[in-house]
Design goal:
Blueprint lengths: L3 H13 L16 E5 L2 E4 L4 E4 L2 H4 L8 H13 L12 H13 L4 E7 L2 H18 L7 E5 L8 H6 L16 E4 L16 H16 L4 E6 L15 H11 L3 E5 L23 E4 L11 E6 H10 L13 H16 L2 H20 L5 E6 L4 E5 L15 H11 L2 E2 L1 E3 L3 E4 L7 H18 L1
Parallel strand pairs: 3-13, 5-6, 5-7, 7-8, 8-9
Antiparallel strand pairs: 1-2, 2-3, 4-10, 9-10, 11-12, 12-15, 14-15
Helix pairs in contact: 3-10, 4-10, 7-8, 11-13, 12-13
């Protein structure tokens, strides 16, 4: 139980704060984080915890990076804010866009900056609709995404998010958003005679495009690895087939790289694993390691040229787009990603984490699947391993697993009752990776 320092702060918190995914019950024994160092978080009582999810997948460089602090402070002194509207720019935004063009998918060289992932989703929806209007196809207005996909919780982004608990409180959803099944190797059932599970899952997109009418579909939005949905890594033949389908039916392919961008999967961007180029990307989180709210979208040269040739404003805007301080931190973060080889570190440490989890838990009767790519892993627990039947919410397995991990010094998140999500800071040490494995093993054995 929290001692007086944490408890006193929680009392004040309850009086005046609402939290993301607000729940008084969940918040009863919350930790109030007072400082961080690398992959460790310290609560108000001075107790340390391994940050098993790098904050919310974003704090890849960990806490206490002086380079990022200096970049922000220096830019605040030089130019704290300037508008990013047409007719106005700043050197840091220009430099960051140049740097992104040098490391991004080859056909993506133009960028628009936002404050985070949800804004990036909304920006891509607007960009896609505008692009098709300029191409003389104004009827292409629908967006397809996937079950278990997470794309943010602004209203449009939430409609694309395929995690159903986000929807009921705010329905009806926008009708032009539709979902297809996730490739989910552990659970997707391919029809008899399918060439492969991955091809069958990709063909769900073709079926939905034909059902909606190809002339009405603007964009398919997908995470290379579905993060908040349970660290779902697709089959190797899934995205190449998706690219073929999008090309066949003139549907833009947008890659949601908010979690997978900047090294997390072992490559700079996620779709590089399968040699696939998207038409659009969206990013956030690791671009600043969470030190400043920043996100953005990148568009193909063809989309950019179409907009430039239109000769009229793109009526979309954010006050904090191209924020000079955020862009300065982004530039410093890209230096860290390059100089410390974050993709290479994530690949190596992710293999250590995945192998460790499998060695520790693969024989457990309630562990159905252990999966991952780069430094993001998921452990899926089940009530019945033979049938893959999940635990029911009333079983309380999720909260009990969370408490068991927290009591041992690991703070992370679960997908509902059944998937422990792990994506520690890329700077986490091998010893810390091994400790995460040990804690997850002990917590699963205690609860199940």
């Amino acid at each position: 139980m929290p001692n007086d320092a944490n408890a006193a702060l929680l009392d004040r918190d309850r009086n005046h704060l609402l939290h993301s995914l607000h729940s008084s019950k969940v918040h009863e024994n919350a930790r109030v984080w007072s400082r961080g160092e690398g992959a460790l978080l310290y609560d108000a009582n001075g107790e340390s915890y391994l940050d098993g999810l790098a904050g919310l997948w974003n704090n890849t460089a960990g806490n206490g990076r002086p380079e990022l602090v200096r970049a922000a402070a220096s830019q605040l002194e030089e130019l704290a804010y300037a508008s990013g509207y047409a007719g106005s720019s700043n050197p840091r935004a220009i430099e960051l866009a140049e740097r992104l063009a040098a490391i991004c998918y080859p056909q993506i060289n133009r960028f628009y900056f936002t404050s985070g992932g949800g804004e990036s989703s909304d920006s891509n929806f607007k960009m896609a609709r505008y692009y098709w209007k300029l191409k003389g196809r104004p009827e292409k207005v629908k967006f397809i995404s996937r079950q278990w996909g997470y794309h943010g919780v602004t209203f449009a982004a939430m409609c694309a998010t395929g995690i159903s608990p986000y929807h009921p409180m705010f329905e009806p959803l926008i009708p032009e958003f539709v979902h297809v099944p996730s490739p989910y190797p552990y659970r997707y059932q391919a029809p008899a005679g399918a060439a492969s599970q991955g091809i069958a899952a990709a063909d769900e997109l073709e079926k939905k495009i034909l059902e909606e009418g190809p002339e009405t579909v603007a964009m398919f939005l997908a995470e290379p690895v579905q993060g908040a949905g349970g660290v779902i890594v697709p089959q190797d033949d899934y995205f190449p087939r998706v690219r073929e389908i999008c090309d066949e039916y003139d549907v833009l392919l947008a890659s949601d790289e908010v979690i997978t961008g900047f090294g997390r999967t072992g490559r700079m961007f996620g779709l590089e694993h399968w040699g696939v180029q998207p038409d659009m990307i969206q990013f956030a989180k690791a671009i600043t390691s969470g030190y400043f709210p920043l996100g953005g979208i990148g568009i193909s040269d063809e989309i950019a040229a179409t907009i430039d040739e239109a000769g009229k404003p793109w009526m979309h805007a954010y006050t904090y787009s191209a924020h000079p301080v955020g862009c300065a931190v982004g530039l410093a973060m890209l230096d860290i990603v390059r100089d410390e080889d974050f993709p290479g570190q994530a690949a190596e440490k992710g293999k250590r984490l995945l192998v460790g989890l499998k060695d520790a838990l693969i024989e457990h009767p309630h562990v159905g699947d252990i999966r991952g790519l780069g430094l993001m892993c998921g452990v899926e627990v089940v009530k019945d391993r033979a049938t893959k039947a999940p635990f029911a919410p009333e079983d309380g397995v999720g909260p009990r697993l969370m408490q068991a991990m927290v009591s041992r010094g690991l703070f992370t998140r679960l997908r509902g009752e059944d998937v422990i999500c792990l994506a520690p800071p890329i700077v986490a040490s091998n010893e810390q990776i091994d400790r995460i494995v040990e804690i997850v093993h002990d917590a699963v054995n205690e609860v199940l």
